[in-house]
Amino acid sequence: MYDAEYQQQVDEYNRQSETTERQLLQTQQQLDQSPKQLDRTQQQQDETERQQNRSKAQSDRYDALLDRWEKQADRQDRVLDALEQVLSTQDDDPLK
Fold it and tell me: What pLDDT, in 10s, does the model give residues 64-84?
């Protein structure tokens, strides 16, 4: 009887040891993967930052282009106003 109980305890201890060993191996594998995951995360963050910088630069270019168009439209409006003023001061019938 003593031998059977002892053998059960030994078997249980061995099962627990194997389980613990598997868990330790899994933990070690996860720890080994952590630096790779951190590197990937950093690379993703860097790429996101580059994309944001490109988007901001493009937005700045569009803003500058819009400003130039608005200034050009203002100049054209002033030229049209001046032409209208000149035309309005001329006599309708230049032969009179």
Answer: 999 999 999 999 999 999 999
